Q: What sequence folds into this?
């Protein structure tokens, strides 16, 4: 019997952390079919592009590639409109609605959860609070919040999802709180090859990279480095760019979007990564450590799963003063963290490790449902070529 597998992902508009996870899962099941609300041609890797793809009616909406988030209240209906027939295994990669897909009778559905619907639960004010959105947008978001949270909880029940896997212990706790279910944990991975030849030449500037979204707390970092009059280089773009640009003092540089080569060079030559947001997991601390760079991070969320006392400083209070104190600690003892300790820590988060652990979780859910384990792949793909 040929195993028929469906992969489900919220939307495909670029290659970020969630999409690289999807790519790694697709390598385990290269004959799978892919279901997603929206796909922008040319936005994903060749591996994802080769999958047989199904999209929702959102694909036909003019300018949906820029406005798809405006359709959030309709996304539960979109994901439930997919009709999966004769699939044996359903694997969703979800930070919004993907895990709410309706599985066929007799199939097994395992969902890898990057976050519960982050716009509606704990981070509602980050996206829709005062100063974050227009009054009309805030009122509209409040009007649908209860409905979306209820749907998110109900669609996570055992009748829809056989097993939940979180990307961090922080997200596993959120799943327990919001869905009332236990979730196991499989950490994402970092591209170790990208930083293998990265030679450290640590300078005096600090480094920050990420989307310019409210919860990233770039504003906090800018204010701290303005006060300290220390150099901070920030890579990224997003909704808050113009506002943050106005806040930046003479020692803070907003560099916009850069190539991977330019970013790797900044990892090599900057003193430490600044990571002040509350993140679901966070790949950038692992990238920094893979390059031999220590991390200064807010001591909650996903950073607790990656940063250790041998690879960085975790500050307790998410305030300008808390970040400034952490920077002062590093400046007082610049030789505290070794390049090798940082690289060794990052090496524990390889792509191969992720695939092995993920496949083990699929196997556990499959066997729990009384299925024949011989139908599943037993080895991860060889990527050494």
A:
């Amino acid at each position: 019997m040929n195993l028929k597998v469906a992969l489900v992902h919220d939307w495909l508009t670029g290659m970020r952390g969630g999409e690289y996870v999807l790519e790694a899962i697709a390598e385990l099941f290269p004959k799978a079919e892919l279901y997603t609300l929206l796909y922008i041609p040319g936005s994903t890797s060749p591996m994802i592009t080769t999958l047989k793809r199904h999209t929702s009616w959102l694909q036909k909406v003019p300018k949906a590639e820029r406005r798809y988030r405006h359709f959030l209240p309709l996304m539960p209906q979109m994901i439930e409109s997919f009709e999966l027939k004769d699939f044996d295994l359903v694997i969703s990669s979800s930070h919004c609605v993907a895990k709410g897909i309706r599985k066929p009778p007799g199939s097994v559905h395992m969902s890898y959860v990057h976050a519960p619907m982050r716009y509606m639960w704990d981070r509602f004010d980050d996206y829709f609070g005062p100063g974050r959105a227009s009054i009309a947008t805030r009122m509209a978001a409040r009007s649908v919040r209860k409905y979306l949270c209820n749907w998110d909880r109900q669609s996570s029940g055992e009748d829809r999802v056989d097993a939940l896997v979180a990307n961090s212990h922080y997200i596993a706790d959120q799943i327990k709180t919001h869905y009332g279910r236990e979730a196991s944990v499989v950490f994402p991975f970092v591209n170790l090859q990208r930083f293998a030849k990265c030679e450290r030449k640590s300078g005096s500037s600090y480094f920050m990279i990420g989307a310019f979204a409210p919860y990233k707390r770039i504003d906090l970092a800018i204010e701290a480095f303005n006060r300290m009059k220390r150099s901070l280089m920030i890579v990224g773009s997003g909704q808050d760019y113009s506002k943050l640009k106005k806040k930046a003092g003479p020692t803070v540089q907003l560099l916009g979007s850069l190539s991977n080569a330019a970013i790797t060079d900044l990892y090599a030559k900057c003193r430490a990564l600044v990571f002040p947001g509350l993140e679901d997991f966070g790949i950038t601390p692992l990238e920094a450590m893979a390059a031999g760079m220590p991390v200064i991070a807010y001591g909650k969320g996903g950073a607790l799963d990656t940063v250790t006392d041998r690879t960085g400083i975790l500050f307790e209070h998410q305030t300008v003063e808390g970040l400034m104190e952490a920077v002062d600690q590093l400046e007082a003892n610049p030789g505290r963290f070794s390049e090798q300790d940082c690289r060794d820590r990052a090496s524990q988060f390889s792509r191969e490790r992720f695939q092995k652990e993920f496949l083990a979780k699929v196997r556990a859910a499959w066997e729990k449902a009384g299925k024949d384990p011989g139908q599943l792949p037993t080895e991860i793909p060889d990527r050494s070529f």
